[in-house]
């Protein structure tokens, strides 16, 4: 496969999901930052894009492994089921466990290491935001997605077009992404100090895995599910001769049209 430098990193992972592991290893954000081209993403990290392309090419020459399911080829009903059963269940199980660890570590070691107290504050805000976020997806957005996936006529949504709540959800992904970057910085890339106790190491391992899972989760929503859902709604709108092409870009990428402050999720 010929890789194009102007393809976005999100598109590259949609084409071949296993490439996410290579982007993770370079610290390249392919979920919230997935709208950047490969060149832009490499420039932001000070990496030579040809180095990344060489590794991606070598990876692409290998046969796809069985874990590497292409989520862009399933119905979006199946995709939201998968997101709920895999990533949302993981968060519901893992966030309380990590909250316990982060709090204990901040109490035990925070006096000599004030960054651990800061980490606890950032994590608590992240946890509250993400718990509310997945509840909104499960109770509000995903039921609309399921409704749309079986509709032959354009459904009437109280939120207007489905792109409206999706913009709010993407903006929340950006906020969660910022918090994860802060946690990575505060922990020196989740690197344990030499004298770290077992609980401290378990906390860092858990936070690192949380970041990896969140990247995969947000990629599936931002780069696969949401564009497919908006395209499906557009097809039904076109049948009525109504305008299509609503933007799902968020404020960080130049918000188009309606103010999201008017949308209550
Ligand atoms: Fe989600
Ligand atoms: Fe989400």
Q: What is the share of helical residues?
A: 55-70%
Strand-and-helix sequence, N→C?
Answer: HHHHHHHH
SS elements, strand count: 0
Q: Round the mean pLDDT to the nearest integer and report it.
A: 88
Low-confidence stretches: 250-258
Number of domains: 2
Give the biggest beta sheet.
none
Q: What count of helical segments does DSSP give?
A: 8
Can you tell me the overall shape?
A: globular
Describe this structure in words.
This protein has 265 residues and is mainly alpha-helical. The protein has two domains: 9-60, no CATH class; 76-262, no CATH class. The chain has helices at residues 9-15, 19-26, 38-45, 49-60, 76-109, 114-149, 163-186, 198-239. Helix 5 (76-109) packs antiparallel against helix 8. The model is unreliable at 250-258 (pLDDT under 50).
Task: Give the helix/strand layout.
Elements: H1 9-15, H2 19-26, H3 38-45, H4 49-60, H5 76-109, H6 114-149, H7 163-186, H8 198-239
Helix pairs in contact: 1-8, 2-4, 5-6, 5-8, 6-7, 7-8
The structure holds fe (ii) ion (2 copies).
TL;DR of this structure?
The protein has helices spanning 9-15, 19-26, 38-45, 49-60, 76-109, 114-149, 163-186, 198-239. The protein has 265 residues and is an all-alpha fold.
Task: Label this structure with key terms.
single chain; mainly alpha; 2 domains; 0% strand; binds fe (ii) ion
